[in-house]
Design goal:
This protein has about 350 residues and is mainly alpha-helical. About 65% of the residues lie in helices and about 5% in strands. It has two domains: about 15-115 and about 135-235, no CATH class; about 245-355, name from scop, CATH 3.40.1690.10. The chain has eleven helices and four strands, in the order ααααααααβββαβαα. Strands 3-2-1-4 form a four-stranded mixed β-sheet, with helices on both faces. A hairpin with a 4-residue loop joins strand 1 (about 270) and strand 2 (about 275-280). Helix 2 (about 30-70) runs antiparallel to helix 3 and helix 2 (about 30-70) packs antiparallel against helix 6.
Length: about 350
């Protein structure tokens, strides 16, 4: 049974966002890409306009000259017509191709800036659910579709209003353009078109920015998680706490067994006398200083003393050394230098009791 969306009050975790991204669910505003294409295209058009106006004027003059020659049946040849057509096509391609190429790059860059490099292995898989007419009708009738329709109509109204507001005074000049020379008429038309395009694309850019914020909000909202989902994800990533506790318990038991088995190899067990026990080992030919092979408190100290007596390891009472070693030295570590003298005296006592030579301590 699906969980109620009202319970999904927590922000999505980084793992949830990464999974959504791998599935192609990213923040994407088509209006932002459209605005980038419009602004970039207008910029390219403005940059190429001086050359374009000059070239188009020349083409127009050639066409009018050809028409004039045809009207008076003077100098009209197939070669002349062919030259005009070729020159016109070449000029149009020279003007259009850079703009189209630039628009393609800008549009791709705008989309890439929003989504980053995104590869979906399942993007080309056929989903028959998407071509189901019943599902299509349900999507058309959904609340989201209504919201998108209202947004589209509102955008059209705003853009149209901005365009008309910007050219409200310039519209009176349009009928008079017929009286201007061709160069002047083309310049005025180009300037007016550029003015409208800049105003409209600017309005679209502002709307696109707002749309991107809205799309990001919708994306964040769609990925919200419930507290239970966050707990389950944490369990899956960190492991079940019960299992982890069992593993830690097993590890501690194994360490205790190893530690207790090392007691029989110790040279001496230092106690305080009942609460703490620390087992030490020292080999002057292999070690720079004695090290701790086992230690414990309470019941564990009692077990260490029992094992030591069972295996014939001397047990010596020295409260200060026992407390210091238990507190400061981990199992498998050498004793600190400030305890060398005290431990050497304990070992010397043990060696004398055994009737052997301690050697250089």
């Amino acid at each position: 049974m699906a969980e109620d969306d009202s319970n999904k009050t927590e922000q999505a975790t980084p793992k949830r966002k990464d999974e959504a991204r791998r599935q192609g669910q990213v923040v994407m505003s088509r209006d932002l890409s459209t605005a980038a294409v419009l602004l970039g295209g207008i910029g390219l058009l403005a940059a190429i306009m001086p050359v374009g106006m000059r070239k188009m004027t020349e083409i127009t003059r050639q066409g009018l000259t050809l028409s004039f020659d045809h009207a008076f049946q003077s100098g009209l040849t197939i070669a002349g017509v062919h030259t005009v057509i070729v020159d016109t096509g070449a000029t149009i391609l020279m003007l259009v191709l850079p703009i189209l190429g630039g628009i393609l790059l800008i549009g791709s860059g705008a989309s890439l800036a929003q989504t980053g490099f995104l590869w979906r292995s399942n993007a080309i898989q056929l989903d028959f659910g998407r071509i189901n007419p019943l599902k299509g009708l349900s999507r058309l009738a959904s609340l989201r579709s209504v919201v998108e329709l209202v947004k589209g109509l509102l955008k059209i109204a705003i853009v149209t209003g901005v365009g008309l507001y910007v050219v409200r005074q310039d519209l009176l000049q349009v009928p008079g353009l017929i009286e201007y020379e061709m160069d002047t008429a083309l310049q005025v038309t180009g300037r007016l078109s550029l003015k409208v395009a800049l105003a409209v694309s600017g309005a679209i850019g502002v709307l696109a920015g707002l749309d991107y914020l809205y799309q990001r909000y919708e994306w964040e909202r769609s990925l919200r998680m419930s507290k239970e989902e966050i707990k389950e994800e944490h369990k899956a990533s960190e492991g079940d706490p019960l299992i982890k506790r069992r593993v830690r318990t097993a590890q501690r038991d194994l360490m205790k067994k190893r530690m207790m088995s090392a007691v029989k190899t110790a040279d001496v067990v230092v106690t305080n006398p009942t609460h703490l026990a620390v087992a030490l080992k020292y080999d002057s030919t292999k070690m720079a200083a004695p090290f701790v092979v086992a230690k414990g408190a309470g019941f564990m100290a009692e077990r260490i003393r029992e094992l030591a007596r069972h295996h014939g390891v001397p047990v010596v009472e020295h409260k200060f050394v026992a407390r210091t070693l238990f507190k400061l030295v981990d199992i498998g570590k050498e004793i600190p230098a400030n305890l060398y003298r005290a431990v050497a005296e304990i070992l010397a006592f043990v060696y004398r009791a055994r009737g052997v030579t301690a050697g250089q301590l």
